[in-house]
Design brief:
The structure is a single chain. The chain is an alpha/beta fold and 419 residues long. It folds into 2 domains: 8-46 and 306-416, Aspartate Aminotransferase, domain 1 (Alpha-Beta Complex), CATH 3.90.1150.10; 65-303, 3-Layer(aba) Sandwich (Aspartate Aminotransferase, domain 2), CATH 3.40.640.10. Helix content is 39%, strand content 13%. The protein has helices spanning 8-11, 17-30, 49-60, 73-87, 103-114, 137-143, 163-169, 192-208, 268-283, 294-303, 305-327, 364-375, 401-416, and strands at residues 36-37, 97-100, 126-131, 147-152, 174-180, 214-218, 244-249, 262-265, 342-343, 353-354, 360-361, 377-378, 380-381, 393-396. A 7-stranded mixed sheet has the order 2-8-7-6-5-3-4, with helices on both faces. Strand 10 and strand 11 form a beta hairpin. Helix 5 packs across helix 9, helix 7 packs parallel to helix 8 and helix 11 runs parallel beside helix 13 (401-416).
Length: 419
Amino acid sequence: MPNISLAPRVVNLKPSVTIAFMNRAKAMKAQGLDVLSFAAGEPDFDTPRAIKDSAIEALLAGQTKYMPTLGDPETRRVIAEKFTKENGIPGLTADHITIGSGGKHSLYVLCHVLFDFPKAGQPQQECVLPVPAWVSYAPLVELAGGKIVEVPTTVKTGFKASAEQIKAAITPRTRMVILNSPSNPCGTMYSPDELKAIAKVCAEAAATIAPDLVILSDELYEKIVYGGIAHFSIGSDPSVAERTITLNGLSKAYGMTGWRVGYTAMPGEFGKKFTNAMSTLQGQMSTNITSFVYPAIRTALTKCSADVEMMRKAFAARADVINARLSKVPKVVNAKATGAFYAFPDVSAYFGTTSKGGKPINSALDMCNALLDEALVAFVPGEDFGGCGKNHVRISFACSEDQINKGMDRFEKFLAELK
């Protein structure tokens, strides 16, 4: 075998723990095991028929050629109008919109547009990130040359960072502040007042010590809310509107995970500069997304509100079930799910025990491995989400109420048998 090496940045890159447990659960099910998986952040609903029909019609009509890198003008205009009318983000046109191959791809591109590796003698650019947070934020920022500055949160605060915490974390090296509401993995969300307070400290910091500060607001779960908290886009706040990139897509609210559609919006003159830079980099990577998907995007955003509301109500009912069940599990501490489709309970009271099958439970990873092997229930361990995540497990309730109840029955039995 030749002595050939791989790039260290890839060798040292952690695989996604979410995908790892999802794939393991699928493999076990393929072997005929009765696995109940709560690992994937994927709605169990099919894509609405009108969206499918739009793509099929475009495909049959011959819309199969290259398109402009960031999407055709009509689709970008529809997205701009959505952000203007629904999110209240001012000053948007089609020229402020990017369309990429899923939210994760858009995030990868924007990180490389904004961050760079420091030259000799220069400080490393920083990204302020409340944790626990989605597992891909930190790796993608670091791949682009940035440094993560964690802002710790707890289950008692609903996993939300305060404006004072954000202010304390910002330095002259701060390039980006990432906010995710509703949250993956936490299933909680910031109130409008909390986000306005964060906008104020970011605006003040940008005017004094951090002139290059940009806010990234990940709002992929914006339509999946049910806890009485109104969704608020921080990019609608005039004080930070032209410093905020709003990231969104069709995966979660429209049941379109496999379609790979993500998009960003950033108003103002810098917003156009940012969008052009996204186009340049994406043009050297993937160019446009699949050509016949563009009409489906327009249909989703303009004609499928009833389908989205049907799914939202189903997630709300499931949230009621999981919140009620977790509140009754001895020694488990849970923040009530109010958005997205995740619960993120603290299970650390059970560390230091041994499973019925003889496996030591000293971490969330230990618990999830034993739970899958012995009870055939797949949760995601919280270590890779950062901060207090090491004491938690993520439970995706994007599945039927019947599966939720069966899974919780097995989980409670598993915990009761720990010694």
